[in-house]
Amino acid sequence: MERSARPTEVVPVTSPFANPNRPGVPPRLPTPPTGWPIGSYATYEEAQRAVDFLAVEDFTVQDVMIVGVDLMLVERITGKLTWSRVLMTGAASGAWFGLFVGLLLTLFSPEPGVTVGPVLTGLITGVFFGLVFAAVGYGSARGKRDFQSASQLVANRYDVLCHPKSAEKGRDLLAKLAMRPVNPSS
Fold first, then answer.
1. DSSP secondary structure letter of residue 29
2. Residue 18's CB: how many other CB atoms inside 10 A?
3. Is the pTM of this model over 0.70?
4. Pairing between strand 147-162 and 64-80?
5. Residue 11 — pLDDT band, cuts 50, 70, 90?
6. N or C: which end of the chain has fewer CB within 10 A?
7. Does residue 38 sit in helix, strand or coil?
8. Alpha-carbon distance 135 to 157, whole Å?
9. Angle 113-119-122 (CA atoms, 0-180°, nearest 5)?
């Protein structure tokens, strides 16, 4: 008995979590970096300068990634919080929101043009609720956080990784960059 040869149909299995492996499209889920190290720098600015140099030298920068190593969260204190500062900030943010809502209300007003009534109502209401929410938020902390701060994620070093097929060329180019004097204006 002879079997007929039928072509086998290949049906790709897809998933909402699968990476479509399209060039220039980052993976959807956090993925560990891959590649060979071609440079290591103390600051992000230096790593960025290295990648910029590679781009100028017509290197395939799509094969390159900058990886921050030994991450840390740095919180810089920007000032002390007081009731007056909290209430002023709350009133200001409420005023902006109220002004925005008031202007939106004038768009749907039957009267043509900007009328003062909805804008003033939105502004006053926004200031009131901004004050209330700021006071409740600050009061509920009960002095446990009486300062303002800004947080930043930084790394101890920044490695430039490259796809293995072009890593040697990348290392050679970055060696040329290392031989150049650093120009503070660039």
1. S
2. 12
3. no
4. antiparallel
5. very low
6. N
7. strand
8. 41
9. 150
